[in-house]
Amino acid sequence: MEPKCAGCYAVEGKPFWGTCEAFSCAAEHGVEHCGLCSDFPCREFMTRYDPREGPENALMRAGLLAYRAKYGDKEALELLEKAESYEKPE
Q1: Which structural domain range is residue 42 located in?
Q2: In the predicted model, what is the mean pLDDT of residues 4-20?
Q3: pTM of the prediction?
Q4: Residue 2 forms part of a structural domain
Q5: Separation CA 24–CA 12 (nearest Å)
């Protein structure tokens, strides 16, 4: 499975929709991603979510970034793949 996004550093914090404030903040704090920041999860992070998905989106991203910080990129991507392909029992 390929990630849906090339990544903050690949697009230099400028995705197709504009400037990524999270990337700028992480760069200011000298970390690769929010999950590695000593302030994580901050209120600012938790207020940034896709309005089509609601606050649940921020909660999911926070959990994934915390997992990524602890276990690394490879395991985090594997976990995300499992979550995306999971089919709820009927």
Answers
A1: 21-85
A2: 72
A3: 0.70
A4: no
A5: 9
